[in-house]
Amino acid sequence: LQLKVLHNDIGCSYEPNSFGERYHWYSSTGWVMWNAQLSGLLSGTTCVLYDGNPGGSKEHPDWGVLWRFAADTGVTFFGAGAAFFANCMKAGITLADYGDLTRIRALGTTGSPLSPEVQEWGTAQFEALGTSGIWWNNISGGTDFCGAFIGGHRELPQVPGEMQCRMLGAAVESWNAEGLPVMDEVGELVCAQPIPSMPLYLWGDVSTAGPPQGAKAPLGGSDPHAVGKRGGDPFGSRYLSSYFDMYPAGHGRKPGGGDGPAAMGAVWRHGDWLKIGAHGGCVIYGRSDATINRHGLRMGTSEIYSAVESLPEVLDSLVVDLEYLGRESYMPLFVVLRPGSVLDDALRGRINGAVRTALSPRFVPDDIFVVAEVPRTLSGKKQELPIKKLLLGQPIEKVVNKDAMANPGCLDWYVAFAAERAGVLLKP
């Protein structure tokens, strides 16, 4: 009910109510989009669930699985991770081949940034089916607070690759390095005011006896670290370090603007690079904790992926910047190639040229390696930070939760790679 009240945005896309709609968002049970289906039920829709791999099997890839399913079940709202739509485009599928999809009136994406190229591809596919100007509800939120910070509104203009607006009830801002809100600039995505669905603590991040008596929630009190102790164990230390360390107590902002008193507590820093345009549209540029910093120039990883994956030979990619503790930057690029493609000198030159042309020579990778898979979370996010930590020498069991991964088996290659090239990766 709380989710429904906060984010009543999964209603019918073209009628005054949702009764009779069929809502499908491909999701695992560990992702917020699974919980969001409650909103579908409360809006009067029929939730349509699929149990299986949306891309077919590894031996027989098939990115038409979900589209056939949607056609067979009469889905009217079709949602999936942004990576799913990108894979469909890369696979070269044609939606007209998978049955009657004309009942789909709206598309939803989340989990990772949706590139303009992918959105334009999807729009063209539906135009070929006779559905012009299909609405894309691109959203950004989080499982830990079970909601969305940024989303869509059917009455607002659509710009490919953008999310249309910030959600009601969420004081979302983009903050620069000084902790000041900025517009038309890339900054840290923060929620400057608490919302009811923010958790009090994370599961297992507290004494087994429960929250200590009299402990304050992280957003309350003048000191976010003075939240009480029991038996010497801090209450909520992982929660605080995940979201509140960058902007501690006193950074909160009053409703309507203006600095708040220290008693307002800490500010939720989500860990994404965000640009809010003057027109209200928002663009996520990737994880801020996986930022590429090359010789003083900072870049979100999504822009590198857009350049690299524009090449037809490259199905997927992962890039990390191993600049750390004063070491010279070393930026390897890992690519998944289309079957039959070979990483020869010509393709290396084209990859480097794509990055040089779209971005800057400074962001050309130092090395390129072919991998079978890019590690991803259950929601489709590329696991840049865990791989970065692994390549900087941390043990794999300390940097990643395999239970939260879609493809944990692929980590073995990265572990072996890190061990084999430790002398190169960690050179002073």
Structural account:
The protein has 428 residues and is of the alpha/beta class. The protein has three domains: 2-162, Rossmann fold (3-Layer(aba) Sandwich), CATH 3.40.50; 171-290, Luciferase, domain 3 (Roll), CATH 2.30.38; 292-425, GMP Synthetase, Chain A, domain 3. The chain has 13 helices and 19 strands. Strand 6 and strand 7 form a beta hairpin. The protein is globular, with a radius of gyration of 22 Å. The N and C termini lie far apart (54 Å). The model is unreliable at 207-233, 254-258 and 260-264 (pLDDT under 50).
List the helices and strands and how they pair.
Elements: H1 2-6, E1 22-25, H2 32-35, H3 37-42, E2 46-47, H4 65-73, E3 77-81, H5 82-91, E4 106-110, H6 116-128, E5 135-138, E6 140-142, E7 147-151, E8 165-166, E9 172-175, E10 186-191, E11 229-230, E12 233-234, H7 237-243, E13 268-276, E14 282-287, E15 292-294, E16 297-299, H8 301-308, E17 314-319, E18 332-337, H9 345-358, E19 367-370, H10 384-391, H11 396-399, H12 411-420, H13 422-425
Parallel strand pairs: 1-2, 1-3, 3-4, 4-5, 18-19
Antiparallel strand pairs: 6-7, 7-8, 9-10, 10-13, 11-12, 13-14, 15-16, 17-18
Helix pairs in contact: 8-9
CATH-scheme architecture of the largest domain: 3-Layer(aba) Sandwich
Please tell me the total number of domains.
3
Q: Globular, elongated, flat, extended or rod-shaped: what is the shape?
A: globular
Terminus-to-terminus distance: 54 Å
Strand segment tally: 19
Return the CATH class of the largest domain.
Alpha Beta
| CATH fold name of the largest domain | Rossmann fold
